[in-house]
Amino acid sequence: MTISIVVADDQALVRVGFCGIIAATPGFSVVGEAANGAEAVAVARAAKPDVVLMDVRMPVLDGIEATRQITASPQLAGVRVIILTTFDLDEYVFAALRAGASGFLLKDTLPADLLTAIRVVAAGEALLAPSVTRRLIGEFARTPAPARGPAGAAAAGAMADPLASQSPPATATDRVAQLLTERECEVLRLVATGMSNAEIADRLYISPATAKTHVAHLLTKLDARDRVQLVIIAYQAGLAAPA
Predict the structure, then answer these.
(1) Distance of CA 85 to the CA centre of its chain
(2) Is 89 in contact with 137 (CB distance < 8 Å)?
(3) Where are the extended beta strands (E) located within the chain?
């Protein structure tokens, strides 16, 4: 199956570079480009890609708001967003997590890692492994929303965090304990470490199909969009410690 991608970046050379790598790889297809966030939303609505590669700082509409609009749209429920950032701890990326981003990549990522990340996010199979994602999520879990950068408040208000109404963390812990079985809590802890379903299966001595079923139950019970949100919930509930 071909994975369809939209590339959104206001720098033409960056767009050309990413599009060239993707288009030259079997199993991948570029179905649209955008030079600003508003274009990214419009192209996503028209093309309904599997993945949008989204720059953060863009004119007209920034990548955070564009991500929020895409992830909040029922018509685009299957679209996943990977944030492209120049800095490995860009303050704007915290707001992007709140807006529903499914992963993060640095712009100097190697082509092979770019393609792997797209596959991973398109499949919803595992959280991106690079250290930037773990560090961002760990910082996200530690830092109150009002303290995050100029775009944080708008994005946080636009789309609620998983278990946001369950603060303080002890309440989130209670809610997770009420919703999940002991085994599901164990699986959630392993998801928070970045393990794939196969790795979880190996650790718990269960079949990959059973691990996949447990993760599916977690997504449903916790009303999480993807594994990134599961990791956030695990941190908020005290089931995982920030890296």
Answers:
(1) 13
(2) no
(3) 3-8, 28-34, 51-55, 80-85, 103-106
**Cα-based torsion angle of the residue sequence 220, 222, 228, 233 in order, rounded to the nearest 10 degrees:** -160
Q: How far is CA 49 from CA 3, 33, 62, 75, in A?
A: 8, 11, 19, 12
Q: 118-174, pLDDT tens digit by residue?
A: 998 888 765 555 455 566 666 666 655 544 343 333 333 333 444 444 444 446 678
Considering only CA atoms, which of 109, 102, 117 is closest in space to residue 86? 109
One DSSP character per residue, 71-137 reads HH-GGGTT-EEEEEESSTT-HHHHHHHHHT--EEEETT--HHHHHHHHHHHHHT-S---SHHHHHHH
Architecture of the domain whose range is 162-236: Orthogonal Bundle (1.10)
Tokens linked to 240: 């995982």
Distance CA 236, CA 186 (A): 15
Q: Where are the domains of the chain?
A: 3-141, 162-236
Give domain 3-141's CATH number out of 3.30.1830.10, 3.40.50.1820, 3.40.190.150, 3.40.50.2300: 3.40.50.2300
pLDDT in tens, 178-199: 899 999 999 999 988 878 888 8
